[in-house]
Amino acid sequence: MLHLAPASTGSLIALVFCFVLVCVFEFANGFHDTANAVATVIYTNSLKPRIAVVWSGLMNFLGVLLGGIAVAYGLVEILPPDVLSPPNGFPAVPMLVSLFGTALAWNILTWWFGIPNSSSHCVIGALVGIAVGDAFIHARGLNHSVDWSQIYHVLSGLIVSPILGLVLALIAYMILRAVVKMPALYRPPAGGEAPHPVVRGLLILTCTAVSFSHGSNDGQKSIGLIMLTIIGLMPGTFALNPDHHVDRTHLAADAAAARPLVAEFDTYNYRADAIASIDRLSSATPLMPSEVRGDVYQVVSALRSVASNPAASGAVKAQARHITADLRPNVEYAPVWVRALSALCLGLGTMIGYKRIVRTLGEGIGKTHLTPAQGATSELVGAGLIMTASHTGLPVSTTHVITSAVAGTMIGAGSGINTKTLARIGLAWVFTLPATIIGAAALFYLLD
């Protein structure tokens, strides 16, 4: 399957199947993750469920459209260059099926049991699993196929953000409680009673902020995956950025500047492949768009290794980053229609399937039910962290940020933590990465 001919009927059918899978995954991401955004407004009767999910879906849509693509390509660069952009233009069908199938299966499994789980963890685990599977297929060491520095960079946001969510929400809740003396903020909703208009407005505002920030971060993840699929479907059209003039002379100059850096400071075992790519980019030999894309990614991967090498001087690292920034616009982009498709799938997914997660957040994390003050504080802190991560190119988990923030407010209120629910969430957090790594690695190996 790995060597399906680029224009064959089999490869086109497989890639169309992958395209459907990525849309379904983003749809599942919407009804799984975005429940975190609507939980407080629904649970506190600030908005009717139907209105809340439609509004949240719209904000997710706008977040995806306006959120950029830094997170999108920060994720896909976990893959080895020869998997990310296969040589000779072969479609990466096994990679796409392994990625979407594994991530989607785990996402639906945790949703079925009402466990707030991270779609980001699912995708990252599957990407790492594919890199591991690639190492076994080619009988080479993991250091050759797995870019540990990039994985560390991506995982750092996922590890730190829940801790920050808990601590910052605890502090923010304590400040709010000391400053604002409105009793309606600190008692759970009663029956169908709507909260005070000021409280209601605050909760709608924080729901809007979380929904928009979720779209700006999580929506980007599917943008990168959709791009991988359409590049496989139509490499001649989409392998290189059609809105960025690819000047072979300029690429040759960048390649020549990268050569001494890669030759001396690349520690990621891609040196030989990167030097070969530099030679091709530096020559006048005609290359297919998919071949240029593959060579650019080989050089970018090597330059990332140079930039993270402790033996390299500050000037060398700065030069490596400068060349990388110059090369990336040739291969890292997203047409408006891809952003719109991602936003549409995420927004539609938001409008269904939210009840299981809403119930867990509203009633299961603390020993008492969620109050408006706790909901507003946790969502405001969550939105701030997610938006910050989106601008820095770090993928974070909306689920884990909001869940930890809710736990922080429960601690601040002295209402206690439901250890059984948190244990379930924690186990899902712990097992998501190994489960998706093993699943994707096995599937990728079998589909070879």
From TrEMBL:
GO biological process: phosphate ion transmembrane transport
Annotated localization: Cell membrane; Membrane
GO cellular component, one term: plasma membrane
The keyword Disulfide bond belongs to this UniProt entry's keyword annotation: no
Membrane topology, from the record: Multi-pass membrane protein
Residues that span the membrane, as ranges: 12-31, 52-75, 95-115, 122-139, 151-176, 427-447
Main location as per UniProt: membrane
Keywords: Cell membrane, Membrane, Phosphate transport, Symport, Transmembrane, Transmembrane helix, Transport
Alphabetized GO MF terms: phosphate transmembrane transporter activity; symporter activity
Pfam families linked: PHO4
Top-rank lineage group of the source organism: Bacteria
Reactions catalysed according to its record: phosphate(in) + H(+)(in) = phosphate(out) + H(+)(out)
Family: Belongs to the inorganic phosphate transporter (PiT) (TC 2.A.20) family. Pit subfamily.
Protein name, as recorded: Phosphate transporter
Species assigned in the record: Tanticharoenia sakaeratensis NBRC 103193
